[in-house]
Amino acid sequence: MENPTIHTIDLKFRGRAGTIAAYLIPTGSGGILVESGPGSTIPALLEGIRSNGFDISDIHDVFLTHIHLDHAGAAGWLAQQGCRIHVHENGAPHLINPEKLLASASRLYGTMMNQLWGTIIPIDEAKIHIFHDDEVVTVGNISIHALDVPGHANHHLAYLIGETCFTGDIGGIRLNPIQYLSLPMPPPDLNLEKWRESILNIQRHHPQRIVPTHFGIYPDVTWHLEALLEVLDDVEAWLDEKLPYDPPIEALRQQYLEFEYQRASKSRIDMSIVDAQQIANPLFLSADGILRYWNKYRKSDAVNKQ
Q: Is-contact 131 91, C-beta < 8 A?
């Protein structure tokens, strides 16, 4: 199948262009969305659908890469409009009953929850299609091939449509064609080993375009995927250096921020790009995710080596 036509809908999250996208793909009998975006950006989503010649009633299927609220927060509202929601089997229960998801997010975002993510609406189970690894679904003239790609989250899928790969967050954060990216690594599911395997899995399918939710469509797939593996190596080396000293979380967050600024400086990247990436990828969350990963998978081995 040839590469599909992709309309990038800029959801203008927190008033900032180019941080979170939903992707609209014509199917010959309407359109599908990859990602719903947050509930707080529904007006921008509707504007983007209409500006590309569609109405919300033309959208019948929504493919979520995973259920984090910046990717899936508006899915319940779209289900109310008649959309079928496609999601990983580990994510589906949290869309049907989002109580635990919201409790977890509330611990991170506190009083900012509604402003950031809007109203989260439970989804009727009848509106959900559980997508399994290597499964293909056809909508109109478009075939969507799912890959199970854990590492960022244990409920994460990437979608192959033609030679284009929609990578959600497993493909990192990259907000413009400059060859610089960062990894979103929030708790609780960060796993560096699984992340590497997921990138290798995507490489085996040889996509010609890569489309992260944060943000855009890129043809330099070889560079992008190799850069992800390099950043994973850099993060692993950093945590092996810092975490054995058991720094308090506030110190760890500051150290990780400095690490990201140093990476950018080494690559001669303007610091404003790092700051913009924090809209989509707050670095304190990555520090928290790294700490949880260390305590769960690495700390006991480090202690035994001492």
A: no
List the structure tokens of 157. Answer: 């899928």
Give the 3-state secondary structure of residue 122.
coil
pLDDT in tens, 119-162: 999 999 999 999 999 999 999 999 999 999 999 999 999 999 99
**Spatial CB neighbours of 96, under 8 Å, sequence gap ≥ 6:** 122, 123, 124, 125, 128
301: pLDDT confidence band, cut at 50, 70 and 90?
A: low
| Rounded Cα distance, 285 and 188, in Å | 10
Q: Using CA atoms, how far apart are residues 158 and 161, in angstroms rounded to an integer? A: 10
Q: Which phi and psi (to 5°) does residue 136 adopt?
A: -120, 130
Question: What letter would DSSP give residue 262?
Answer: H
At 101, the amino acid letter reads L
Using DSSP, state whether 239 is helix, strand or coil: helix
What letter would DSSP give residue 215?
A: T
Residue 185 to residue 13: CA distance in whole angstroms: 19
Q: Which two tokens stand for residue 167?
A: 């990578």
Answer whether 84's CB lies under 8 Å from 62's CB.
Answer: yes
> Contact 118/74 with Cβ under 8 angstroms?
yes
Q: How high is the pLDDT of residue 1?
A: 59
Task: Give the closest residue to 37 by CA, choosing from 276, 275, 213.
Answer: 213
